[in-house]
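hey can u check if this looks right to u? its 182 residues, i copy pasted from the old doc so theres a chance i mangled smth
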Amino acid sequence: MMPLEMTVQSPSRLGLDLVAVDQGAPLELNLRLESVSEGVLVTGTVAAPTSGECARCLQPITGEVEIDLTELFAYPDSTTDETTDADEVARVTCEGNAEAVDLEQPIVDAAGLALPLSPVCSSDCAGLCQHCGIPLAGAEPGHHHEQIDPRWAKLAELREQSADELREQSADGLREQTGDES
């Protein structure tokens, strides 16, 4: 068994569209590497800062993610190596006289599963106004827009047009009664 505690830089952006660990961000590895009959078992945690945007209001957000990692790296010519496809289990590689494990892909996979699909800045985030797009958290109380159901929009136009015509007719009638033809 060999403990491994170190901080490394993220080799690439790890995560999803709305939230991720940025490239170059510090990854704090707190791992344990154990030799087992079929290979090397890596267990532990990886912690890193995250950044992204709220899925509701699109404001920038930051946070932390802690990833639990458990991964078996099969020895060459082990039963696990011989009975699994190349993409099913990671492999121990030989570099010169030393054996190595590549933790990048297991960390990338675990980060994708640990991060939320729809991150929010707060659990009660109201999001954006669907009509004008301003964040509702910063809008005045009671912010709303008068909306006419599209099925009734033409009728509303006719009503407004009729009201304007009635006002004109009333004004014309009043002029006739008073004798004012200006």
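The helical segments are 79-83, 104-114, 153-178.
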